Amino acid sequence: xxxxxxxxxxxxxxxxxxxxxxxxxxxxxxxxxxxxxxxxxxxxxxxxxxxxxxxxxxxxxxxxxxxxxxxxxxxxxxxxxxxxxxxxxxxxxxxxxxxxxxxxxxxxxxxxxxxxxxxxxxxxxxxxxxxxxxxxxxxxxxxxxxxxxxxxxxxxxxxxxxxxxxxxxxxxxxxxxxxxxxxxxxxxxxxxxxxxxxxxxxxxxxxxxxxxxxxxxxxxxxxxxxxxxxxxxxxxxxxxxxxxxxxxxxxxxxxxxxxxxxxxxxxxxxxxxxxxxxxxxxxxxxxxxxxxxxxxxxxxxxxx
Length: 304
Prior knowledge:
Blueprint: E1 2-6, H1 11-27, H2 32-46, E2 50-56, E3 59-71, E4 74-84, H3 93-107, E5 112-117, E6 129-138, E7 149-153, H4 159-176, H5 182-196, E8 206-213, E9 216-228, E10 231-239, H6 248-262, E11 267-273, H7 277-285, E12 289-298
Parallel strand pairs: 4-5, 10-11
Antiparallel strand pairs: 1-2, 2-3, 3-4, 5-12, 6-11, 6-12, 7-8, 8-9, 9-10
Helix pairs in contact: 1-2, 4-5
């Protein structure tokens, strides 16, 4: 029988959790310093997590960690960790821990439950919707661009229109992923862009690109260099709708990789919202692996 006991001292669990998470980041291609920076972000809220030991007939079988907090006006739960030790795997403890986490969060007012996965979801979370993915590729040399596609810096005159379009697109992606309502998504978009680009086009360590073919603009790009040590983060590489289906997406990726190498970074990372299958398929086709996947379900779960 699977039982759960809240830990008063979670020190040993945290050491094991950080070891496992660090190993997953380095296996995905992050350098040691970049992996540690990712862990720093996780540690910021880890003190608020409730950690339960999973036991079977008095023997420890694993851990499950949960937390409930406000997320843009929505009470949301999160499974921070769910780990069943190998000798106890496949005996139903995983499902029992997932169900316990769902009940625990729902009892504390959560209407949604999120989980960050660093391994394939398998059957345990296949009923959860994909909220987004973090993809990354180490860039030894950039992908070959399409003939005739060039990239140039964005001009101050082009920036306001680009900014308005990016903010609207970002809000739409959030809604499509099921993360927030349209009104909440607009507020989040305004807040995030103000924080990320306080000096607009002149914000340091950012590259803004305009992609052209045959003298016509076909897309834009926005990259943040040094997002992690040695890692550039691609906030956006966008091809205009009328120019899609012509292989220009690969050209945009190549432009981003060239800009990454130009500043001395060696890896390029992207986040993609759930529901954006076109972007996911593009990233897969050019070798960007899933480093993290965020999934969610509404609470209470129907049929649970």
